[in-house]
Write a structure and sequence with these properties.
This protein is of the alpha/beta class and 315 residues long. The protein folds into 3 domains: 5-99 and 201-221, 3-Layer(aba) Sandwich (D-Maltodextrin-Binding Protein, domain 2), CATH 3.40.190; 106-188, 3-Layer(aba) Sandwich (D-Maltodextrin-Binding Protein, domain 2), CATH 3.40.190; 231-308, Double Stranded RNA Binding Domain, CATH 3.30.160.40. Helix content is 35%, strand content 23%. The chain is built from 10 helices and 13 strands. It has helices at residues 14-30, 44-47, 53-56, 64-71, 131-140, 153-162, 172-177, 211-217, 223-240, 284-308; strands at residues 5-10, 35-40, 77-81, 93-98, 106-110, 125-127, 145-147, 167-171, 186-188, 202-207, 247-254, 257-265, 272-280. The strands form 3 sheets. The protein has a 5-stranded mixed beta sheet with strand order 2-1-3-10-4, sandwiched between helices. Strands 7-6-8-5-9 form a 5-stranded mixed beta sheet, sandwiched between helices. It has a 3-stranded antiparallel beta sheet with strand order 11-12-13. Strand 11 and strand 12 (257-265) form a beta hairpin. Residues 53-57 have low confidence and may be disordered.
Length: 315
């Protein structure tokens, strides 16, 4: 007999609440007798809005407080954007499910009169705090000025006019989920701007030993998305070394085959390594690790060490 209650831990942003409410609705649809509630938790990443994430700790800033609430048995599961989830979990919790992916691409919202990326004027001002996006767009257009912007989706859209920007870069998935699709000016092909690791997918985290809850949520796992995201995260785990760096990886699955592309760049986009491999989906994690090691062999370690002036990737 499944538990009659389930508590979801979530951030309080509009997008996080949309994601948590979607999970809630799917659970209630599947289990009509289940009582599902949301617990809103303010994370460190929600409190620090005036500093780029790379300078204050990156991914873990959006999940740590929720994980701690789970370990205190205050919530049963956490719903995360997969691109916010670190590759390591605190003892006692783990990533149980990865949902079917929304559109993984990045998008541009352009100022009036600008038809596409190619029409952005010389020295145009682009709003994004993502080192990954900055590096790839600067690789294409070294003349562009990258302006740091933080905040929720609506705040960043508003900054297009408030900060006199030519474009802002956001994730297509968040725009679709929040009903802002009509404001999208251009979708960026992954060949132009490789998405963030896990972008578009949701992750459900739970206590490893909570069998009743895990049995309830297992139906959320989408195998094709899970294979792709596991491979992407294996790249990140092998390359990351504790630093927040311009790293990207994107996997796509067709039948039982996975195509995986990974990228490492310096912040300026001038020194960039990129490689694509293919494998059977059963080899997703091993392939992600080996692809990352190939990039390290080609000089990715030197790029990453230079970005942060550290020596994480010594021989």
């Amino acid at each position: 007999m499944p538990s009659r209650t389930l508590r979801i831990g979530t951030r309080a942003s509009a997008l996080a609440l949309w994601q948590a409410n979607w999970v809630k609705q799917e659970l209630e649809k599947r289990y009509p007798d289940l009582e599902v509630s949301l617990t809103k938790i303010k994370t460190q990443g929600d409190k620090i809005l005036d500093v780029p994430l790379a300078m204050v700790g990156g991914k873990g800033l959006f999940v740590k407080e929720i994980q701690e609430a789970m370990l205190r048995n205050e919530v049963d599961i956490a719903v995360h954007s997969m691109k916010d989830v670190p590759t390591f979990f605190p003892e006692g919790t783990g990533l149980r499910c990865i949902t079917e992916r929304e559109d993984p691409r990045d998008i541009l919202i352009l100022k009036d009169g600008c038809a596409g990326f190619a029409d952005i004027p010389q020295n145009g001002r682009i709003g994004t705090s993502s080192l990954r996006r900055k590096a790839q767009l600067l690789n294409l257009r070294p003349d562009l000025q990258m302006i740091d912007i933080r905040g929720n989706v609506e705040t960043r859209i508003r900054k297009l006019k408030e900060d006199h920007l030519d474009a802002v870069v956001l994730a297509a998935a968040g725009m679709h989920r929040l009903g802002f699709s009509e404001q999208i000016s251009e979708y960026l092909d992954p060949k132009v701007c490789l998405p963030a690791i896990g972008q578009g997918a949701l992750g459900l985290e739970s206590r490893i030993d909570d069998t009743a809850i895990n049995d309830l949520i297992d139906f959320f796992n989408h195998p094709a998305t899970a294979h792709a995201v596991i491979a992407e995260r294996a790249v990140l785990r092998t390359l990351e070394g504790g630093c927040q760096v311009p790293i990207a990886a994107y996997g796509s699955v067709s039948d039982d085959q996975l195509e995986l592309t990974a990228l490492v760049s310096d912040v300026s986009g001038r020194n960039m390594l990129k490689k694509t491999v293919r494998c059977h989906v059963d080899q997703a994690e091993e392939t992600g690790v080996s692809l990352a090691k190939e990039l390290l062999d080609q000089g990715a370690g030197d790029i990453l060490n230079e970005v942060y002036g550290c020596e994480t990737f010594k021989e």
